[in-house]
Amino acid sequence: xxxxxxxxxxxxWFSSVNTYADMSPxxxxxxxxxxxxxxxxxxxxxxxxWCQLFSTPASTRPVLSFIYQYFGQYSGIEFGRVRPSDRLxxxxxxxxxxxxxxxxxxxxxxxxxxxxxxxxxxDEAAFETIGELVxxxxxxxxxxxxxxxxxxxxx
Length: 155
Description:
Blueprint: H1 2-23, H2 27-39, H3 47-52, H4 61-75, H5 94-97, H6 102-114, H7 130-140, H8 148-153
Protein backbone atom coordinates (compact mmCIF):
# COMPACT_ATOMS: atom_id res chain seq x y z
CA UNK A 1 0.00 0.00 0.00
CA UNK A 2 2.80 2.41 0.86
CA UNK A 3 4.59 1.81 -2.45
CA UNK A 4 1.38 2.49 -4.39
CA UNK A 5 0.95 5.74 -2.47
CA UNK A 6 4.53 6.77 -3.24
CA UNK A 7 4.10 5.90 -6.92
CA UNK A 8 0.89 7.93 -7.03
CA UNK A 9 2.57 10.92 -5.36
CA UNK A 10 5.52 10.65 -7.73
CA UNK A 11 3.20 10.53 -10.77
CA UNK A 12 1.33 13.54 -9.41
CA TRP A 13 4.62 15.43 -9.00
CA PHE A 14 5.73 14.66 -12.58
CA SER A 15 2.32 15.71 -13.88
CA SER A 16 2.58 18.98 -11.95
CA VAL A 17 6.04 19.68 -13.39
CA ASN A 18 4.77 19.09 -16.94
CA THR A 19 1.67 21.23 -16.37
CA TYR A 20 3.73 24.03 -14.85
CA ALA A 21 5.89 24.19 -17.98
CA ASP A 22 2.78 24.40 -20.17
CA MET A 23 1.29 27.22 -18.10
CA SER A 24 4.40 29.34 -17.57
CA PRO A 25 5.73 32.05 -19.88
CA UNK A 26 8.06 31.11 -22.72
CA UNK A 27 11.15 33.07 -21.70
CA UNK A 28 12.88 32.44 -25.01
CA UNK A 29 10.05 34.01 -27.01
CA UNK A 30 9.82 36.84 -24.48
CA UNK A 31 13.52 37.58 -25.02
CA UNK A 32 13.06 37.44 -28.80
CA UNK A 33 10.16 39.92 -28.68
CA UNK A 34 12.18 42.37 -26.59
CA UNK A 35 15.23 41.99 -28.85
CA UNK A 36 13.12 42.46 -31.99
CA UNK A 37 11.66 45.71 -30.65
CA UNK A 38 15.13 46.97 -29.77
CA UNK A 39 16.42 45.96 -33.21
CA UNK A 40 13.71 48.11 -34.80
CA UNK A 41 15.43 50.97 -32.99
CA UNK A 42 12.30 51.69 -31.07
CA UNK A 43 13.06 54.16 -28.38
CA UNK A 44 11.75 53.11 -24.99
CA UNK A 45 9.11 55.69 -24.10
CA UNK A 46 8.38 56.90 -20.62
CA UNK A 47 4.92 56.19 -19.26
CA UNK A 48 3.80 59.73 -20.09
CA UNK A 49 5.19 59.57 -23.65
CA TRP A 50 3.59 56.17 -24.19
CA CYS A 51 0.19 57.45 -23.06
CA GLN A 52 0.43 60.29 -25.58
CA LEU A 53 0.62 57.77 -28.46
CA PHE A 54 -3.08 57.04 -28.04
CA SER A 55 -5.70 59.51 -29.19
CA THR A 56 -7.80 59.26 -26.08
CA PRO A 57 -9.10 61.90 -23.68
CA ALA A 58 -6.82 63.07 -20.88
CA SER A 59 -9.19 61.45 -18.37
CA THR A 60 -8.15 58.02 -19.64
CA ARG A 61 -4.49 58.52 -18.71
CA PRO A 62 -4.94 56.40 -15.55
CA VAL A 63 -6.12 53.47 -17.71
CA LEU A 64 -3.20 53.90 -20.10
CA SER A 65 -0.74 54.12 -17.20
CA PHE A 66 -2.27 50.98 -15.76
CA ILE A 67 -1.79 49.13 -19.07
CA TYR A 68 1.78 50.36 -19.40
CA GLN A 69 2.69 49.15 -15.92
CA TYR A 70 0.69 45.96 -15.56
CA PHE A 71 0.97 44.59 -19.09
CA GLY A 72 4.71 45.01 -18.80
CA GLN A 73 4.57 42.97 -15.58
CA TYR A 74 2.33 40.28 -17.05
CA SER A 75 4.39 39.84 -20.19
CA GLY A 76 7.96 40.74 -19.27
CA ILE A 77 7.95 42.90 -22.40
CA GLU A 78 9.51 46.33 -22.19
CA PHE A 79 6.21 48.11 -22.67
CA GLY A 80 7.76 51.47 -23.46
CA ARG A 81 8.71 49.97 -26.84
CA VAL A 82 5.19 48.70 -27.59
CA ARG A 83 3.18 50.76 -30.08
CA PRO A 84 -0.61 50.90 -30.68
CA SER A 85 -0.34 48.95 -33.95
CA ASP A 86 1.56 46.04 -32.37
CA ARG A 87 -0.43 42.85 -32.70
CA LEU A 88 -0.97 40.99 -29.44
CA UNK A 89 -0.45 37.53 -30.95
CA UNK A 90 1.73 37.98 -34.03
CA UNK A 91 4.11 40.69 -32.79
CA UNK A 92 4.03 40.48 -28.99
CA UNK A 93 3.13 36.77 -28.66
CA UNK A 94 1.15 37.70 -25.55
CA UNK A 95 -0.38 34.26 -24.92
CA UNK A 96 3.10 32.73 -24.95
CA UNK A 97 5.06 35.32 -22.95
CA UNK A 98 2.52 35.63 -20.12
CA UNK A 99 1.35 33.15 -17.54
CA UNK A 100 -1.64 31.18 -18.82
CA UNK A 101 -4.04 33.04 -16.51
CA UNK A 102 -2.82 36.57 -17.19
CA UNK A 103 -6.27 37.73 -18.29
CA UNK A 104 -7.82 36.64 -14.98
CA UNK A 105 -5.09 38.45 -13.08
CA UNK A 106 -5.63 41.49 -15.30
CA UNK A 107 -9.38 41.57 -14.57
CA UNK A 108 -8.68 41.32 -10.83
CA UNK A 109 -6.05 44.06 -10.95
CA UNK A 110 -8.30 46.28 -13.07
CA UNK A 111 -11.13 45.84 -10.58
CA UNK A 112 -8.82 46.69 -7.68
CA UNK A 113 -7.58 49.81 -9.46
CA UNK A 114 -10.79 51.14 -11.04
CA UNK A 115 -13.59 49.30 -9.21
CA UNK A 116 -14.82 48.05 -12.58
CA UNK A 117 -15.44 44.34 -13.16
CA UNK A 118 -14.48 43.32 -16.69
CA UNK A 119 -14.53 39.57 -16.09
CA UNK A 120 -17.77 39.07 -18.03
CA UNK A 121 -16.67 41.25 -20.99
CA UNK A 122 -12.94 40.83 -21.40
CA ASP A 123 -11.76 38.31 -23.98
CA GLU A 124 -8.12 38.75 -24.92
CA ALA A 125 -8.70 36.87 -28.18
CA ALA A 126 -11.08 39.61 -29.36
CA PHE A 127 -8.28 42.14 -29.90
CA GLU A 128 -5.76 42.09 -32.70
CA THR A 129 -3.66 45.07 -31.58
CA ILE A 130 -2.77 46.72 -28.33
CA GLY A 131 -4.54 49.82 -29.68
CA GLU A 132 -7.82 47.88 -30.01
CA LEU A 133 -7.45 46.60 -26.48
CA VAL A 134 -6.78 50.14 -25.20
CA UNK A 135 -9.87 51.45 -27.02
CA UNK A 136 -11.99 48.69 -25.48
CA UNK A 137 -10.79 49.56 -21.99
CA UNK A 138 -11.35 53.28 -22.53
CA UNK A 139 -14.92 52.55 -23.68
CA UNK A 140 -15.54 50.59 -20.48
CA UNK A 141 -14.78 53.52 -18.23
CA UNK A 142 -17.82 55.17 -16.63
CA UNK A 143 -19.14 58.29 -18.37
CA UNK A 144 -18.54 60.46 -15.30
CA UNK A 145 -14.81 60.03 -15.88
CA UNK A 146 -15.04 61.45 -19.42
CA UNK A 147 -14.57 65.18 -20.09
CA UNK A 148 -17.81 67.10 -20.65
CA UNK A 149 -16.87 68.10 -24.23
CA UNK A 150 -16.40 64.47 -25.28
CA UNK A 151 -19.75 63.46 -23.76
CA UNK A 152 -21.46 66.25 -25.74
CA UNK A 153 -19.85 65.08 -28.97
CA UNK A 154 -21.18 61.56 -28.42
CA UNK A 155 -24.82 62.67 -28.19
